[in-house]
């Protein structure tokens, strides 16, 4: 984790920002709960446990700054809640997600599946792609298995 904090500190410094104690507390929560896709309110509640003096507005500002600097990605899975996801170290693009419409689980796909699509878009439309996001909505393996079990036991 300390290596990642140091990397983020360098990214902030490169853009003339400092890793203040408030920002560091927010980043630490995101690192500790990286797989959870936390909302700003979730982050705030967890930061508050570590640093009770930090306010909600500070957490919001920090998340927005980290988002602008592409340290975190702000995502919405169609439920009206913005969530924050740390960009993987050295990642050129945002990673992809599988969102289960039954249980709400979110799974990450780290591999970049859209390299060829980007090339086609750039060639056919003359559009220079800077980033992309891909979210699949469907039914996860566990929910499918549960559905099969409930129909075989009925």
Automatic annotation (TrEMBL):
Keywords from UniProt, A to Z, are:
DNA-binding, Iron, Metal-binding, Repressor, Transcription, Transcription regulation, Zinc
Residues binding Fe cation, per UniProt = 132
Q: Which Gene3D superfamilies match?
A: 3.30.1490.190, Winged helix-like DNA-binding domain superfamily/Winged helix DNA-binding domain
Cofactor binding note? Binds 1 Mn(2+) or Fe(2+) ion per subunit.
**What InterPro entries does the annotation carry?**
FUR, Fur_C, WH-like_DNA-bd_sf, WH_DNA-bd_sf
Question: SUPFAM superfamilies, per this entry?
Answer: Winged helix' DNA-binding domain
Molecular function terms, GO-annotated:
DNA-binding transcription factor activity; transcription cis-regulatory region binding; zinc ion binding
Q: Which residues bind Zn(2+)?
A: 100, 103, 140, 143
Q: Which cofactor does it need?
A: Mn(2+); Fe(2+); Zn(2+)
Could you say which protein family the record assigns here? Answer: Belongs to the Fur family.
**What is the protein name for this chain?**
Fur family transcriptional regulator, ferric uptake regulator
